[in-house]
C-alpha cells in the first residue's frame, strides 16, 4: 500500500526461493504498479505541472537555485519550508540533490504500521464543510471492499439531513451496510451503534462520518470530543485513526484548520482531496511537514476509484520527471 512496504516487498521477492520466471513476473508486476501509481500522480498534478512549467519550460539536467525556488513558490509550497529544503544547495541543482531534500520534508511524519490491525478497525473522519468527507468515506469503503475486507459506515453527520442521505446513497451504490439516525439526533450514539454492529457482525472496517465544522464552533467541537470518548466506550482503543480531510484547493490555508483540530482531538493522519482541481500540489509538502503528520491518501476526482495511497517517493518523482531529464 505504501511505498516503504512496497520496497520491502521488492527485497523479499528478490531473496525468495522462487522459480526465476515467477520471481521476474512478480517484480515486473510491482514495477508496473509503481509506474501506474506515478501515472496517477501525474494526472492529479496536471494543474500544478502547468504552473511549474511556466518557470522551467524545458527539461534539464541541472536547474538553477532561483528557478527551483520560484517553481516551488508557484506550486504553493510555503516560503519557510522552501528555505528549509534548499538550505546549502549549490547554484545549479541536480535531480538527485533536490529529490533528497524534498523527500526529507515528509520524514517528520511518524511511520504507521498497518499490519496486525485491530478488528474492527475504526476510522473517524473529520473536516470542515465541503472538504470532501462524504466522498472520501465512499472511496475508503471502496478500497476496503477491493482489499477483500468487510466495511460498515456510520452516518455521524447528524447535523445535516442531506449528509445522511448522501452517505446512504453511496452505501447503496457500494453495497455496504450503514448505521444512521434522524437529523438532529446524537452523533455519538451513531458512532457507538456502528462500532457495536461491526463487533456483532464481525466486520473488518468501520468508517464514521462527522459533521463539517470550523475550529471555532465550540458546541460542535465539544460534540466531536464526545464522539471520540464514546467510540472508546464502544471498543477500547477506538477510534484507531482520526483522519482529517483537507481540501487541496485551499493550499496552505488548510494547515491552520488541521492544527486546531489536532490540538482539539489529536489527528493521526491526513487525506488531501481535490488535488486534481488545483495548481497547489506543493502544499502537500507544507501540510505534512508543518503538521508532522502522515498523508495517507490523496483524492484525485469525484468517483469512487479516485483515491490513491500517498507515497512521498512517487509524488516527488512525478514532480521531478516534469523538470529534469532522466538521470544518466
Ligand atoms: N475534483 C474533486 N472533487 C472532489 C474530490 N473529493 C470530493 N469532491 C467533491 O467535493 C464536493 C464536496 O464533497 P463532499 O464529500 O460532499 O464534502 P463533505 O466534506 O462531506 O461536505 P459536507 O457534507 O458539506 O460537510 C463534492 O462535489 C465532491 O464530489 C476530489 O478528490 N476531486
UniProtKB/TrEMBL annotation:
SMART domains assigned to the protein according to its UniProt record, in alphabetical order: AAA, SRP54
Record's bilayer topology term: Peripheral membrane protein
EC numbers, comma separated: 3.6.5.4
Record CDD domains: FtsY
Every SRP54-type proteins GTP-binding domain range: 294-307
List of residues binding GTP: 127-134, 209-213, 273-276
Keyword terms: Cell membrane, Cytoplasm, GTP-binding, Hydrolase, Membrane, Nucleotide-binding, Receptor
GO cellular component, one term: plasma membrane
Enzyme class: hydrolase
Keyword Cytoplasm: yes
Catalysed reactions listed for this entry: GTP + H2O = GDP + phosphate + H(+)
GO molecular function: GTP binding; GTPase activity; signal recognition particle binding
Localization per Swiss-Prot or TrEMBL: Cell membrane; Cytoplasm
Annotated PROSITE patterns: SRP54 (PS00300)
Claim: Lipid metabolism is one of the keywords in the record: no
Function: Involved in targeting and insertion of nascent membrane proteins into the cytoplasmic membrane. Acts as a receptor for the complex formed by the signal recognition particle (SRP) and the ribosome-nascent chain (RNC).
Protein name stated in the entry: Signal recognition particle receptor FtsY
Organism: Arcobacter caeni
Amino acid at each position: 500500500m505504501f511505498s516503504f512496504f512496497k520496497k520491502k516487498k521488492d527485497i523479499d521477492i528478490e531473496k525468495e526461493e522462487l522459480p526465476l520466471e515467477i520471481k521476474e513476473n512478480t517484480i515486473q508486476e510491482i514495477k508496473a504498479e509503481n509506474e501506474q501509481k506515478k501515472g496517477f500522480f501525474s494526472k492529479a498534478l496536471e494543474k500544478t505541472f502547468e504552473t511549474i512549467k511556466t518557470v522551467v519550460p524545458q527539461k534539464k539536467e541541472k536547474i538553477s537555485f532561483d528557478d527551483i525556488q520560484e517553481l516551488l513558490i508557484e506550486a504553493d509550497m510555503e516560503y519557510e519550508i522552501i528555505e528549509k529544503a534548499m538550505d546549502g544547495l549549490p547554484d545549479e541543482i541536480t535531480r538527485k540533490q533536490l529529490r533528497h531534500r524534498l523527500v526529507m520534508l515528509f520524514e517528520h511524519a511518524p511511520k504507521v504500521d498497518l499490519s496486525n490491525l485491530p478488528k474492527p478497525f475504526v476510522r473517524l473522519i473529520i473536516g470542515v464543510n465541503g472538504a470532501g468527507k462524504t466522498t472520501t468515506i465512499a472511496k475508503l469503503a471502496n478500497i476496503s471492499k477491493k482489499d477483500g475486507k468487510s466495511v460498515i459506515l456510520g452516518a455521524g453527520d447528524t447535523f445535516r439531513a442531506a449528509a445522511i442521505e448522501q452517505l446512504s446513497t453511496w452505501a447503496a451504490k457500494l453495497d455496504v451496510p450503514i448505521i444512521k439516525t434522524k437529523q438532529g439526533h446524537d452523533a455519538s450514539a451513531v458512532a457507538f451503534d456502528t462500532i457495536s454492529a461491526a463487533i456483532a457482525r464481525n466486520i473488518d472496517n468501520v468508517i464514521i462520518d462527522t459533521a463539517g465544522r470550523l475550529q471555532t464552533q465550540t458546541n460542535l467541537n465539544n460534540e466531536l470530543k464526545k464522539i471520540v470518548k464514546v467510540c472508546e466506550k464502544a471498543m477500547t482503543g477506538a477510534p484507531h485513526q482520526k483522519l482529517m480531510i483537507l481540501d487541496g484547493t485551499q493550499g496552505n490555508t488548510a494547515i491552520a484548520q488541521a492544527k486546531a483540530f489536532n490540538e482539539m482531538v489529536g489527528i493521526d493522519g491526513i487525506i488531501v482531496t481535490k488535488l486534481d482541481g488545483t495548481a497547489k500540489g506543493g502544499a502537500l509538502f507544507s501540510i505534512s511537514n508543518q503538521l508532522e503528520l502522515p498523508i495517507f491518501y490523496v483524492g484525485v476526482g469525484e468517483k469512487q476509484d479516485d483515491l490513491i495511497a500517498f507515497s512521498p517517493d512517487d509524488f516527488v518523482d512525478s514532480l521531478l520527471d516534469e523538470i529534469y531529464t532522466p538521470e544518466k
